[in-house]
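Annual report, structural modelling task.

Input specification for the zinc ion complex:
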Amino acid sequence: MPLPKAELHLHIEGTLEPELAFELASRNAVVLPCSTTEELRRAYLFDDLQSFLDLYYALMAVLVTEDDFDRLADAYLARAAAQGVRHAEIFFDPQAHTARGVPLGTVVEGLARALDRSEERHGISTQLIMCFLRDESAESAMRTLEAARPYLHRITAVGLDSAEVGHPPSKFREVYDAARALGLRAVAHAGEEGPPAYIWEALDILRVERVDHGLRSLEDPELVKRLVRDQVPLTLCPLSNVRLRAVDVLEDHPLRAMMDAGLLVTVNSDDPAYFGGYVGDTFHAVREALGLGQEQLRELARNSFRASFLDHDEKRRQAYLAEVDAYVF
Ligand code: HPA
Ligand SMILES: [Zn+2]
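The model returned the following structure:
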């Protein structure tokens, strides 16, 4: 049995495995840039975030019907369950679908179908986080928030993703204020490729409760002090950082140094179909590469539940934490 954990940084579109992509392409008469799954997998050699995003958005064209989104999410939940995931807070990118003519309702209702069965079928509690594409305008993000009003009961928080550099969090101040007024919580990608200043902006301007990645935090000692003082969770994605060349090799990843600095870090898979592993694989890889011991792995698992948006169900959080404490390696 794998170590129980929560996954807090997972783009559902990034769980689209080549096999499912080809199946849906054929069903929906969508032409893909590659003709075999092997050829597609060979395309997964990325230079940076943008080179990945180009393929990520291209492949999404196969997601058309509610059933497609249900299949996608159900496949992720099955894989996650096998790797010990007990709770998942799942990102989706509405603008990447509405821009192709797929209605927001199709996306949310399709994902919700899988999520509604998740506890019974996979033993995983779930939440949805709606991300805005930061390389699109703030007006487009605001229109997306407006369009999401009928589905807000399904959505826990807003997030911010896509190409980071040149699109600082401050661009989305009004959107985040509006989201908070609607009762949504807030997270944002910051400091993946962008500078520590973007992490400050996410904290002070967007008032996020968690920072997604926050990889570059250690470059700014004042920022580290702030993150440690407030115990702001960082959702690290070590395999993603290697594949997108934010770090050269896993052995150089700052995860361990960040734990030693007192930061509340978690380990997540980001886009597992593209980056070579789901979250259990990621725990495995960092254990090997960074020489983490059992107590550090347990701490990462505990952090994942501490950092989760389970505040409305504290009993469940405590039950998950008890599972971590009772886990025998
Ligand atoms: O790792 C990522 N970073 C930014 N945007 C993204 N959208 C999907 N994955 C990512
Ligand atoms: Zn991400």
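The longest strand covers residues 125-133.
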